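Case study 2.
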Amino acid sequence: MGKVKIYLSEIFKAFYKIFCQIIPTNNNMIIFIAFHGRGYLDNPKAIHRYISELPDFKNYSFIWPLKHKEDIKNAKVIKYLSLSYFYYMARSKYWISNCKLPQYIYKKNNQIYLQTWHGTPLKRLAHDIQLEEGASFYRSRMTADQMVHTYDVDVAKYTYMISPNHFSTEVFQSAFRINRERLIETGYPRNDILSNYTEKDKQDVLKKYGLPANKKIILYAPTWRDNQFNTSGYLFELKVDFKMWKEILGEDYIILYKPHYLIINKMKKDKVLEGFVYEINADAEISELYIISDILITDYSSVFFDYAILKRPIYFYMQDIAEYQHELRGFYLDIYKDLPGSIYETEKPMLEDIAEGVFDYKRLDKFNERFNYLEDGKGAKRVVDILFTDRGYDHETK
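Prediction:
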């Protein structure tokens, strides 16, 4: 069965390459892809919102492939992986994506591919993941060579890749084996809102999610585990006692539980926690949750890099740190020295510190100096200036 699948894939790739060469490129067309069509999200969304308001782009067409129907201002929405998707990938001059594209997607030399990626990395990526010989990745069952090959195929097509800081520039060269000339240090466009939001923006988000305006909000945003999955996707065993959280934090707080977008299972409902814990859809735009939250609790997710821009307290609840650090992915940073907040392996001392307001802001300031020096609300502008005004750049795939 595997050989048949590979054979059919090769036939499709050959056919699609011919199809792409027949379809002429529209120089005024841009296609945006976020998390494989999961929604109108992240860096592609921020770039689209910025560029669609510029007079110089009034004659451009903006295409958004999505898995689920959604109305997007100033854009044509199509079905992800539909026939329209393949047509517009062949037709669009510019591709703006925050994730790997399918390996069979063919890029013509006159097309420009901007890979925005989706976070400053804490966990090791691609070529930097260290597996024992013969080991495979849990859910995909890919070997290390097979996994890095999927990245290599995609990276070979990049015209530019966004880097949010010098640290990421170094990591991306190692993890993705991309040459420095194609990495552009601009900060992340998705973070512009964290510098530019208004009080009305905050009130609109509170209203959208039906949240009280007189409570302190804690955003709990853990990541996925490579070794917790089923045939449908990744699972997450929620190892928190929200009843303890409620007892220690009291009536002044509410919790927003936002799982990683790869996590498919839901939290079990408990009437005792109604009005205290709000589960947010995994595909929700997390940046709007940042601006209404007073505190972030996370584990190994890269969300803390972005949230730190707001200069608000961040706590790390890592109950499985020994397993994660040594048996799963491993880290780029010394988590005990480099993170912008303290690590807790049990809940109670963390909750007591939150209730008492224990947090080291000097540590946060030092972290921002290293990682967020470009996050000034102008990331989208810098990206667009490079992508569309540098007309003399040799855009052919290197």
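Residues 218 and 295 are 5 Å apart (CA to CA).
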